[in-house]
């Protein structure tokens, strides 16, 4: 009866562990897929903005050429004035396109940052704080005399090389035929 209870507990425990492991694998897979989707969405948004930005610029150039041709026909001698106005309009359009790109880049960065925060990826500030903490702990270790010195840090590779050389010498000694010591004559 006791053996039956123990085996039932073991079965229940192993089933529980398998369920937990399967759940952890599913969670890991879903996080990976989510990160991939965020990345693809960002790349898609960038491509779309690039295509639309180019189309907008081309449309503005066409409108500017059309306006310039119309004004030349109407104004005759005042074409230079109108040309300056068109160039000014084109310059403004370029500035708007540049502003659009800047805003789009900012939106993209913010969305990626939000996705990274949701996935609990440490940010620049977190890493900076961690580096500061490690430096502080190193300083405390040095003050206590527990930190390895530069001399000890240099000795580590030398120790490894010494161990390798010692092993090589031992192998060579094992392979070499042993010399027998001469026997002393027995006293009679």
From TrEMBL:
Domain of life, source organism: Bacteria
Region (Disordered): 1-27, 145-188
Compositionally biased spans, kind Basic residues: 152-188
Pfam families: Phasin (PF05597)
InterPro entries: PhaF_PhaI
Low complexity bias locations: 1-16
NCBIfam families on file: PHA_granule_1
PANTHER family: SLR0058 PROTEIN
UniProt name for this protein: Phasin family protein
Organism: Pseudoxanthomonas putridarboris
